[in-house]
Amino acid sequence: MAADSTRQTPPAVKLHFRPDINGLRALAIVPVVLFHAGLPGFSGGFTGVDVFFVISGFLITSNLLREVDRTGRLRLGSFWAARLRRLAPALSVMIVITVLASLVVLSPLEWAALAQQAAASALYVSNVLFAVQSSNYFADGLDQSVLLHTWTLGVEEQFYLLWPVIILGACWLARRGRGGLRRTIVAAFAVTLLASFALSIWQTGAHPTWAFYLLPSRAWEFAAAGLLAALPIGARALRRRTRTLLAVLGLALVLAGVFLLSDAVPFPGVAAVVPVLGTLLLILAGTPRGDGVPESPVLVSRLLGTAPLQWIGSRSYSWYLWHWPVIILAMAALRTQSAAVGSLAALASLGIAVLSYRFVEQRARADARLVASVPLTFTVMGTSAALVLLLAGGAYAGASMVTASEALAPYQAAVTARGQTDCHEQTTADSGIRYCVAGDTTAERTVMLVGDSHAGMWQQALGAAAQAEGYRLVTRWLSACPAIPVAVVNAEGVRDPECEQYRANTVRLIGEQRPDAVVIVDANSYLGRVISDTGEAISPEAQGQRWAAAYSQFVAQIRGFGAVAASVEDNPQLGFNPVLCLTRVFGSAENCAPDLADALATTDVLRRAEATALDTLHVTPRLLTVQRMCDGRSCRVLVGRDPILADQGHLSSAFTTLQIPDLQAFLRTAMAEASP
Questions:
Q1: DSSP states along 563-631
Q2: Same domain as 497, residue 379
Q3: How far is CA 600 from CA 45, 304, 626, 633, 653, in A?
């Protein structure tokens, strides 16, 4: 049962072709593509990936166990070489062409990240990269990574690397008299399934990005399929009627995942059981009897075996590789997230996939020289990966040179300044609460700025205004955490305890500092993230009501300390990054300027709720931002050569600096209302 990584013969046993499973691939890829294209109705199309995971787990485990049963050993080198011949050539070609096309279509400001992602994809670790970067798989597609979809290949390749090692470990234990071989293997699979599923449930709530992208929280999907392959419960033990019921139920579960789940449901976690169980039932129902009794497949299996599904299923891997970069690049080039454009791009990607399947995937997979030699396979595949890494390095070097040019300087400055806190002087109060001090730090009168990152983007300009007017500015803000006492979840759907502590300490600091005025700046982009006090999701109308009530409560607290409450209106939030748009091919201030209605769409509910609360409470002064950026029809994205926004929603320092004279008048009005 030893592993042999150097034998130059292919595995003695190959996978038995299952038309129903090949049809399942079509049932998996079509929803994924339509979901990514933005076609309405396929809200859970992403669950097609889970169908693929189960298929891989079943087929690979069946193949490995068949080899163990027949030869008593596993040829790891041959197995891994076969996987590389199957996956690596088409992936390398896709990465190279995608990177080259992206260098033309995308902004030079995106090239460095593109290079990093290309290298990670070639090494099958892009899932780890996206998890570390907290990339949102469900974010709007226009500014998504063109290689985001390669995370699944990372998960699968990592599974291929570790799964046969687990089987070898079970073989080693069985040889030492610690249980029968198949029983030991089943126990290993069961432990993997239970541990991974428990981790998936916990991480989906605590660290959803890690749960989504990483193998440990996805391994149970492969392990469940492995158990199905290892346990002696094939369809041979089931009557035809039972198999039909299982197939119908399995198909219903897979389709329920596609049409009923959505990105609003925490995933994977428990929700992933729906597509996983459905796929397992379909595989079980379609398993050949194998006992010499002739029997035609059940109806669902026959449907999966039809010619159109077989054709798509055979090309599903190539289609998966190509559909995402073609969709993203088409949307970026045309500056639209239209489902029509996405659908046409998806259809075009199928044509590319057909060519890739015929001239790359099939040829590499069946090449006689590669099949006959494991070392040659590793050499060729390693060389192709090295070439991708070389291209990625060139793209990264090109990014460094181009972004240093004078033409891109204002845009690079906007992006760079976005990450700066601009804390003039950090101080710790006697209570241990940390805050920043700016303006005239020796002045007797104090203004305090509080809020989330949208308060942070005004910090530098407000500090300059306070300095000019002779006021001390105290600043305290926390990203993704509004200062008003409203329950919200973060972008990953988790309620952050740090946010609760930040708010409590902010109120305490107001009491300690006793500022003359408190300026509130909170983003209005929390719609869908405002929840009830007990953590339940609530309607948009209820979210607006809670936002207004929380604003009123916070203003009352400020006034309770004898301070004046002032407000800076939140700026519009765009569905794309205007800096990237402006620096892409044919980017201009005209074609990157959004309609006013579109710019306000994501913030309108909370914006109106906040305005109502401010009117009711007679809060003055109020600095209006929207009218500084937009007219009655559209919003500007440039002022002179400088971008107004540094990303989708944060104002650039160049723009806020232009507002310093008005900020001075704003502060004078606030101080005039405050008691001397």
A1: PEEEEEPPPP--SS-HHHHHTSTT--TTTTPPBHHHHHHTTHHHHHHHHHHHHHHT---EE--HHHHB-
A2: no
A3: 28, 46, 9, 11, 21
CATH assignment at residue 457:
3.40.50.1110
Residue-wise pLDDT for 142-151, tens only, equals 678 999 999 9
Q: Are residues 317 and 423 in the same domain?
A: no
Residue with tokens 């990014």: 399
Q: Are 511 and 561 in contact (CB under 8 A)?
A: yes
Helices first, then strands: H and E counts in the chain: 29, 9
Model pLDDT for residues 265-308, shown as the tens digit of each residue: 999 999 999 999 999 999 999 887 654 444 556 789 899 999 99
ω into 268 cis (within 30 of 0): yes
Strand extents, DSSP E, 199-344: none
Tell me the one-letter amino acid at 299: L
Summarised one tens digit per residue, pLDDT across range 498-536 is: 999 999 999 999 999 999 999 999 999 999 999 998 888
Alpha helices in 218-268 (DSSP H): 219-230, 240-260
| Longest CA pairwise span in the chain (Å) | 97
- Whether residues 97 and 128 share a domain: the answer is yes
- Give the list of residues 6+ apart from residue 144 with CB closer than 8 angstroms, or none: 328
pTM, two decimal places: 0.88
Does residue 491 belong to any structural domain of this protein? yes
CA of 160: how far to CAs of 18, 58, 129, 210, 215, in Å?
A: 20, 12, 19, 20, 11
Report d(CA 671, CA 447) in Å as an integer: 8
Looking at the predicted structure, is the pLDDT value of residue 665 above 90?
A: yes
pLDDT tens readout for residues 6-60: 444 444 334 468 899 999 999 999 999 999 999 999 999 999 999 999 999 999 9
In this structure, the strands spanning 425-428 and 434-439 are: antiparallel
> Six-digit token pair at 473?
């500015």
pLDDT score at 51: 98
